[in-house]
Amino acid sequence: MQRQSVNSSNIASIGYHAGTQTLEIEFLNGGVYQYFDVPQHVYDGIMSADSHGQYLAQNIKGYYRYSKV
Q1: Which domain holds residue 42?
Q2: Using CA atoms, how far apart are residues 8 and 20, in angstroms rounded to an integer?
Q3: Looking at residue 49, what is its pLDDT?
Q4: Is the pTM of this model over 0.90?
């Protein structure tokens, strides 16, 4: 999955596959996580958020299944 670099103190890049609704987040520490069944509007939200990390904490973590890659 292709990820786009973001300006964040914690997140290096974010990618999304619309067909499978999979959101992929690469952290600056090298960890990569995939979140499943994430709607397009949530991906759009994290990409346009002033703080990607804050959006992740408030709208994604704890709401969607995930797996460390």
Answers
A1: 3-68
A2: 25
A3: 98
A4: yes
